[in-house]
């Protein structure tokens, strides 16, 4: 029999003022909700898993968490093969209600959470009061206190029993339910922005994307092969001929549909890219005015992606070109020999650092570089990710491990030794912030990390202060 005994060594090792932040942390054998002062908001052994549901822009006092309890049997109502269900907790660790959900999506601007039990969606407010039962294929807040939803009872199925369409209903803030008359994709998804939401509508025997208003009425006719949400007055849409442009809210084209791809919706910078033939255009986000055009001659294929608002990477026939948001070419390379990334858990403004990897896993080398690919720090065995960036300062998670060889059918293969992984944190110049001596490091905030060394988990800051510790001891018994 295997018995796990947890000993909380110090629930609050430092005297601190009232907490401003709440974190979900895991020890591998259980999970806790902690404040940044080291106060425990849930009991050890109560939950097997915990994670934050709310985005970083949600006020801390309104943050919601999902908490999967330690269970000996599936909860009542759960279906075979269904993902584990969990409770919703508030920022103080209190359950919102007694219901358990498969997953949820907190929408702070609407003051609600869309929740699922199995494949069926519903909605609750931030105190746990049910607004819609989990009886819909999809639910979208309308921005005015009501919802657009596809009732389970309206689903239409094909001969094989698969859902193919559903009727779209509007549920007003006053409780009034209205059939919009639109047949849409059964598992409705999306969001309203600028008063409109993209939706896939069944027109005759064909599916087309259009836009609805908050009452579920068509505001832009379904005439597109694909459509994205609006942002700052524009939305990317693709015509039936396969060309993309930017729409205004009145349905007219702000940017004519002559492009093969547009990186508008998810872009982070003050400009965005658009592909046309063998050319990459850099356009101003606010005015749509062109900043630069770079043409790649005689290419068989080309694609592009933005790197965290700092630059655009264009790949043409395996050749990589980095272009600044001002349209300047920063560097070139080959995709087969170079990997570029710059992603952060939390970021304000465009980061001035890239993570560059060369070589073949697991013997590759990682470097921290500037935007022109000039090395700043390295080599490292791995730079796992950017943690945060703000005002020219940042943190990066680095990793080291030992290698071993195994032979199969006369061939030798090299692998990392799982037990040898160690992690540390460096700053934007490669200076050590946390030593490469931790078995696990989880970023919580710029002031807090959750880290494991051996059997002990600790909440620490960069100065080495410990706010909370918990150790696990394993006793093996026959």
UniProtKB/TrEMBL annotation:
Keywords: Signal. Residues 1-20 form the signal peptide. This is WG repeat-containing protein. The lineage of its organism: Bacteria, Bacillati, Bacillota, Clostridia, Candidatus Pullichristensenella.
């Amino acid at each position: 029999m295997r018995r796990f005994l947890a000993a909380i060594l110090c629930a609050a090792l430092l005297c601190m003022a009232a907490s401003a932040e709440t974190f979900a942390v895991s020890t591998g054998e259980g999970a806790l909700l902690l404040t940044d002062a080291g106060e425990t908001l849930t009991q050890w052994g109560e939950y097997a898993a915990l994670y934050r549901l709310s985005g970083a822009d949600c006020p801390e006092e309104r943050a919601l968490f999902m908490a999967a309890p330690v269970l000996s049997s599936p909860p009542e109502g759960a279906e075979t093969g269904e993902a584990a269900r969990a409770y919703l907790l508030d920022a103080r660790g209190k359950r919102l209600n007694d219901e358990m959900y498969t997953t949820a999506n907190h929408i702070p601007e609407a003051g609600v959470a869309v929740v699922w039990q199995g494949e069926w969606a519903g909605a609750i407010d931030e105190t746990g009061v049910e607004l819609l039962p989990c009886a819909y294929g999809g639910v979208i807040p309308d921005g005015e206190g009501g919802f657009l939803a596809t009732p389970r009872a309206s689903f239409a199925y094909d001969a094989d029993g698969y859902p193919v369409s559903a009727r779209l209903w509007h549920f007003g803030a006053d409780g009034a339910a209205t059939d919009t008359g639109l047949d849409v994709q059964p598992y409705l998804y999306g969001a309203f922005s600028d008063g409109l939401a993209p939706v896939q509508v069944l027109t005759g025997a064909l599916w087309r994307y259009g836009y609805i208003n908050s009452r579920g009425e068509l505001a832009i006719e379904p005439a597109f092969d694909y459509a994205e949400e609006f942002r700052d007055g524009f939305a990317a849409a693709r015509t039936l001929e396969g060309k993309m442009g930017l729409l205004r809210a009145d349905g007219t084209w702000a940017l004519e549909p002559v492009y093969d791809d547009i990186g508008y919706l998810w872009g982070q910078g003050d400009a965005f890219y658009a592909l046309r033939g063998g050319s990459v255009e850099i356009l101003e986000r606010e005015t749509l005015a062109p900043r630069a055009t770079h043409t790649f001659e005689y290419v068989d294929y080309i694609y592009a992606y933005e790197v965290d608002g700092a630059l655009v990477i264009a790949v043409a026939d395996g050749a990589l070109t980095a272009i600044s948001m001002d349209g300047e070419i920063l560097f070139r390379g080959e995709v087969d020999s170079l990997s570029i990334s710059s992603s952060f858990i939390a970021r304000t403004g465009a980061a001035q650092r890239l993570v560059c990897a060369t070589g073949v896993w697991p013997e590759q080398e990682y470097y921290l570089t500037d935007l022109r690919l000039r090395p700043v720090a390295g080599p490292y065995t791995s730079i796992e990710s950017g943690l945060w960036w703000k005002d020219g300062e940042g943190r990066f998670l680095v990793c080291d491990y030992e290698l071993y060889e195994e032979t199969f059918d006369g061939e030798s293969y090299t692998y990392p030794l799982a037990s040898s992984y160690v992690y540390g944190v460096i700053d934007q110049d490669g200076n050590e912030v946390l030593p490469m001596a931790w078995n696990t490091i989880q970023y919580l905030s710029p002031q807090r990390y959750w880290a494991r060394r051996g059997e002990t988990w600790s909440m620490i800051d960069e100065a080495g202060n410990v706010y909370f510790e918990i150790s696990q001891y394993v006793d093996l018994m026959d």
